[in-house]
Amino acid sequence: MRKSNSTTGYVLLAAFFAVLLLPGVAMAWDAEMAKQLSQGASEHTASIVELVRGAIGGDRPSIDILVQTKLIPAIILLAALVLTWTVASSIGRYVGGMVSKKVDLTLGKFLTKAVRNLLMVVVAIGVLGYFKVDVTSFAAVLAALGFAIGMALQGTLGNFASGIMLLMFRPFKVDDFIVVADTQGTVEEIDLFTTRINTLDNRHIIIPNSEIFGSKLENYTRNELRRVDVNVGAAYSADLDRTRAALERAIEKSDCVAEPCGYVYLIGLGASSVDWQLRAWCKTSDYWAVREQLVANAKKEMDIAGIGIPFPQLDVHVGGKLLAKSA
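Given the sequence above, the corresponding structure tokens read:
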């Protein structure tokens, strides 16, 4: 805080003395600027010295001119800068604090500085206009500079814009498990330009935000509940009602959360089995544990009921005789 206040004081002090030369700079701005700038500043400085000497000598006209044309504008400039800095800093902190609380801390800090600096630039242009400096030249230079920077940093600006959109709309947050840009893993950090992800095998991947915002994204942990689907094949000789009852018991013995916690569906008649599917709801954080429970319980209950789980078989017949039977 002390360093920031010292820097502000130096800026204001420099601005106070710079106001003495601004009119001279303005005189040499429009025509042959490079040649006349030095001459205009020198002439203006000489006139100031002459006025100061007259004021020290008690010359009333010199004192009046010095106060009206130099001192008062300098005080106005100082007051404008101090007031603008105070107001701009307050507005920036308010906007940044609100965004940090409701959206994201990173975006809030960025907006705090951006709002303050933008307001300072606007006032600086107004001060230049007050001292008769042609600000249209500044506008043209800033426009050309902005265009050049935009072309040079096109990819970076695209990542920055995508980062802002991700922080605003929040399709995912830190610690979410997502699948995006052919990558799946847990989000570690969301920056303005990149997003960092840790994969299941503990690889650390950094993805540009433009690739994330412009592609399909799957968030596996955003919702509180998730459905587990487990496919099971039963022998054709097994009774359908007995098979359904065994699979329902498998669901009941699993850690499901909804009421009813799951369903058993007959989904098809396969090449070598009757195909069933167990669908059970669980907490997202318990997905893999519940899935393992369902698979294990389905096998146990079908064994208890005497229902076989078939595997692919091939019968070879030649001339009406069975030659071989292979799996």
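The radius of gyration is 38 Å. Try to locate this feature in the token string yourself.
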